[in-house]
Amino acid sequence: MYVSGQIPYVNGAIPDHANDGVNDIQDQSKIVMENLRAVLAEAGYDFDDAVRATVYMSDISLYGGFNEVYGTYWGETDMPPSRAAVAVKELPGGKPGAPVLVEVSMVAYKSE
Predict the structure, then answer these.
(1) CA distance 87 to 25
(2) How far separated are the first and last CA of the chain, in Å rounded?
(3) Mean pLDDT across the chain, nearest whole number?
(4) Which end of the chain is more exposed for a tag (fewer CB within 10 A), N or C?
(5) Does 76 score more than 90 pLDDT?
(6) Residue 31 to residue 11: CA distance in whole angstroms
């Protein structure tokens, strides 16, 4: 299953708490991961089925903050999917004063 890039939108916008200048990358990353979880679950998958993730960030210096959140979605003995991180100038969906800092797409696989 190919999951399109998810951005930190809740009800069509970035919540204020994810754009208040305090831990924005962590807050946006959690929203993105929960959006991914919901899309996967709707199709009968979960994060254990993920085999590939592509992470787009507006600045590569945000990678550490993203990683703090990303790592919490797999247990110590679980194997997270292979991953690529790419810095881009800006991400779609941002608005003046409310930039999208992170977007994640994912590929999941289940043997039948």
Answers:
(1) 14
(2) 13
(3) 94
(4) C
(5) no
(6) 11
